[in-house]
Amino acid sequence: MAKLTLPSKADIARLDAYAPIFNAEVGGALRWVMCQLGLTVKILEQRIQGVSNSSWRAYTQASYKQNRPLHVMAAFCWLTQIGMSAVYRGKHIQHYWPTVCDHTIKSIILSGLLPEAQFKQCLMLVVEKMFKRGHNLESEVKPLFNAIPHFQDAFLMPDQLDINDFKADYYRSIALQLRQFRINNQLDYKLLSIIFNEPISRIKAFEDPDNPVTIPGFIAVRLKLGFRLQDTAIFTSGMRKYPNFYHSREVQQAREEVILALMKPLTPSERQWVNELIKTVLKI
Description:
The chain is mainly α. The protein contains 14 helices and 2 strands; from the N terminus they run ααβααααααβαααααα. The chain has a two-stranded parallel sheet with strand order 1-2. Helix 6 runs parallel beside helix 14.
């Protein structure tokens, strides 16, 4: 196991300074995703049951300066198939895909919602169409496509998600994984208290799988940036009732690689055509 990088006092000071900025910016990130996918607050309320219309309106506004519940952000990301690490970028969410054009970013986002069969059909159509235009994409794209894990569309969020059931399962997994993370890396509660900017009693509560407590969204940012973790998805790998939330991130990452390889050699107009095709297929 690689040695964990511990944050310096300067790192922690930067996190403390970033907290109010993050809370102001993350609402803009959520709103940007909604615009890309044509989502409304009403749709969010219908699909993720237990979060009120007024709460969604607040959470998706940059003017809302308070912490958003981590489990609500996670449910939003499951619905939209957007990685939480992207949302953590706040108003710079598009920088999550560096050196990539807008058409490619939008294609990544839109294609994430396609069921497995539609994603495959769409991909085959693009490869065939672009072959006629002089692009031999199959050799690059096919191995990446074959590497996508298959869950028979179960990786997509259910048509309706009970946020309270999801919350209990989500925080149970985090509690177990956070405790294991602390033990494996020989971290004491005092250090975690400083990094998370929470009292030790709250850290211990975060590790209690039987009595889940709501975790502020910025805690996940403190964990990821404070310890310089590449990915925090492992903290949800212990979900029992909703294991496909964890699997969804596996599919997202694999599909991103496919779309990036697919779009790289294309011209701007060809990328726009791919983007429009995905939009059309998504509406079917």
